[in-house]
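> example.struct
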């Protein structure tokens, strides 16, 4: 990315999409890098199946939060205090390590009433690197519904 100023478009998937075209991403584990790429792009286009459409973010019950390993205990305690149910992500019995060298806490959550305020609160916890909330970033969401495709555009 250092060779160019910005990308014209980025195409990616999402784990949840709400009616405002806000997203939860990161079930695959690269949430901070994906957020950087999305912010680097003029247009973020999201491709999903209709099973990813939710009425409110958090409806599927999980929000990934990337944390520095040194701060994981503090982050876990603080996230619990916010009503989350954080569990360290493991793969094959081993702690999952992101491409940034961090850990992911998969937070059990209920649908989020105010995603922007919730994200600000989580990001204020020392040791939190990023969340899977992608708010106001997607301009277009393309939804596959069986044999049909629906295109939703963020209102400007």
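> example.seq
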């Amino acid at each position: 990315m250092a060779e160019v100023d910005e990308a014209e478009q980025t195409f990616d998937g999402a784990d949840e999409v709400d009616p405002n075209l806000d997203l939860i991403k990161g079930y695959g584990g690269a949430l901070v890098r994906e957020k950087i790429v999305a912010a680097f792009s003029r247009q973020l286009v999201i491709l999903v199946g209709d099973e990813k459409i939710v009425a409110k973010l958090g409806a599927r019950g999980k929000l990934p939060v990337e944390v520095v390993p040194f701060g994981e205990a503090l982050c876990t305690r603080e996230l619990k205090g916010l009503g989350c149910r954080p569990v360290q992500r493991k793969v094959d019995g081993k702690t999952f390590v992101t491409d940034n060298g961090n850990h992911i806490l998969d937070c059990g959550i209920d649908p989020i009433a105010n995603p922007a305020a919730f994200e600000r609160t989580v990001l204020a916890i020392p040791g939190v690197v990023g969340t899977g909330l992608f708010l106001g970033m997607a301009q277009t969401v393309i939804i596959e519904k069986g044999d049909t495709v629906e295109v939703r555009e963020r209102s400007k």
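> remarks
The CA atoms of residues 16 and 36 lie 18 Å apart.
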